Amino acid sequence: MTAVPRPPDPVELAERVAAAVTAHPAVAGLHGGLYNAVATYLPGRKLVGVRIGEGDEPVEVAVVLLPDRPIPDVVRALRREVSALCGGAAVDITVADILLPGELP
Amino acid sequence: MSESTATPSTTTPTTTVSSPARLADDTSQGKTTIAASVVQKIAGIAAREISGVHSMGGGMSRAFGAIRERIPGGGTGSTNISGVQVEVGEKQAAIDLDIVVEYGASIVELARAVRRNVITAVERMTGLEVIEVNIAVNDIHLPEAVDEEALPPVQSARVE
């Protein structure tokens, strides 16, 4: 556990994290966070909602959830999954909004 | 690959069993932030669930809400959060509600029921501790039919 085995390519990692997060049934989508700061800049586009920190910085994820189950359970599951993908890094999760049944995403 | 190294860490040194509903127990693994609009929506729905609550919002917030709905991008779903102000910290939330009650409801009982339902919903859904729910009853909604029939004809036959 001395050297955290973080995969060298943060771009690929960000996409894998985004895929894992959106695969959760309670996640309606990714979100830019409070100041739209949670994003990964890729060649030609921007992956909103995931930011892989450098070095000791935490991985940041911002999501919009569906209100069908308690938020702490969802956050715990997401954190476990993302942390495993990122070699045990700390994961900051922002629940930016919830999507009510009548609303469009 | 690296997933196999993660499995033997079942004996995690952090004991997170003290209060499972709280979010602060996982600070070593990262912070959790819940936006104010999340708490606003949950509180608004919970308050409206109580029968006797006619609508939400005071004079000012209803007026601003009506304007905001006409502005593109002025906030989607503002109907759900009008009349709800929240303050959200890392572990706690405080909620202010402006409600319009139906005529005939006991306001004291109604406020008590609203408060109970809002606290239950927000604490269950977000894991935040609700420290206070302040309720302002801004108006009372009268049944339309009654007051229009009851009004006397205006100034018609005062003198012959």
Could you name the key traits of this structure?
heterodimer, A: 105 residues, Alpha-Beta Plaits, two-stranded antiparallel ribbon, 27% helix, globular, B: 160 residues, alpha+beta, elongated
How do the strands and helices of this protein lay out in sequence?
The complex is a heterodimer of chains A (105) and B (160).
Chain A: H1 10-22, E1 27-30, E2 39-42, E3 45-48, E4 50-51, E5 59-65, H2 71-85, E6 91-98
Parallel strand pairs in A: 5-6
Antiparallel strand pairs in A: 1-5, 2-3, 4-5
Helix pairs in contact in A: 1-2
Chain B: H1 3-6, E1 32-34, H2 36-49, E2 53-56, H3 59-70, H4 78-81, E3 84-88, E4 92-102, H5 107-126, E5 129-141, H6 144-150
Parallel strand pairs in B: 4-5
Antiparallel strand pairs in B: 2-4, 3-4
Quick overview of this protein structure:
The complex is a heterodimer of chains A (105) and B (160). Chain A has 105 residues and is α+β, with helices and mostly antiparallel strands.
Write up what this structure looks like:
The complex is a heterodimer of chains A (about 100) and B (about 160). Chain A is of the alpha+beta class and about 100 residues long. Chain A has one domain: 2-Layer Sandwich (Alpha-Beta Plaits). In chain A, about 25% of the residues lie in helices and about 30% in strands. Chain A contains two helices and six strands; from the N terminus they run αβββββαβ. In chain A, α1 packs antiparallel against α2. The mean pLDDT of chain A is about 85. By secondary structure, chain B is α+β, with helices and mostly antiparallel strands. Chain B has helices at about 5, 35-50, 60-70, 80, 105-125, 145-150, and strands at about 30-35, 55, 85-90, 90-100, 130-140. In chain B, strands 2, 3, 4 and 5 form a four-stranded mixed sheet that branches. The chains are: A alpha+beta (about 100), B alpha+beta (about 160). The interface of A and B includes residues 34 and 90 of A.
